[in-house]
């Protein structure tokens, strides 16, 4: 059965976008995983990443593509992933690292201020001074 041209175009575009979305997930996973982790934990994390990214791709394609999974959809996902890694991964990775650093800094400042307030309350209750 032949599909109309606009449907075929949408299938290709959304499969490329699904590959790029997988690349973004992969970059976030690389940042979260870090280095120097036990090999058994890495295997478990890789399996979990594969399952979650597969579910995310399927949900994305189900919503935009009616979950049409032909051979060229898989090729489009792979090509989109490779294009993402080659062209824009370094920029997104830099942005994700900066965002993670900013979020960590924000929570560190909040934690330090909360601890300071709790110390003041603790010293007031016990009647001690620094």
TrEMBL record:
Pfam families: Spore_YabQ. InterPro entries: YabQ (IPR019074). The keyword Transmembrane applies. Keywords: Membrane, Transmembrane, Transmembrane helix. The chain crosses the membrane at residues 12-29, 41-63, 69-85, 106-126. This is Spore cortex biosynthesis protein YabQ. It comes from Clostridium paridis.
């Amino acid at each position: 059965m032949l599909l109309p041209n606009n449907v075929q175009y949408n299938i290709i575009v959304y499969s490329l976008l699904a590959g790029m979305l997988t690349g973004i997930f992969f970059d976030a996973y690389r940042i979260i995983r870090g280095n120097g982790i036990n090999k058994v934990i890495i295997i478990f994390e890789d399996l979990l990443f594969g399952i979650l990214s597969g579910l995310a791709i399927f949900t994305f394609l189900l919503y935009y593509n009616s979950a049409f999974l032909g051979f060229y959809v898989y090729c489009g996902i792979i090509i989109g992933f490779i294009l993402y890694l080659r062209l824009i991964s370094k920029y997104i990775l830099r942005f994700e690292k900066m965002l993670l650093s900013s979020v960590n800094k924000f929570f560190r400042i909040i934690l330090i201020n909360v601890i300071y307030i709790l110390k003041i309350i603790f010293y007031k209750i016990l009647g001690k001074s620094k």
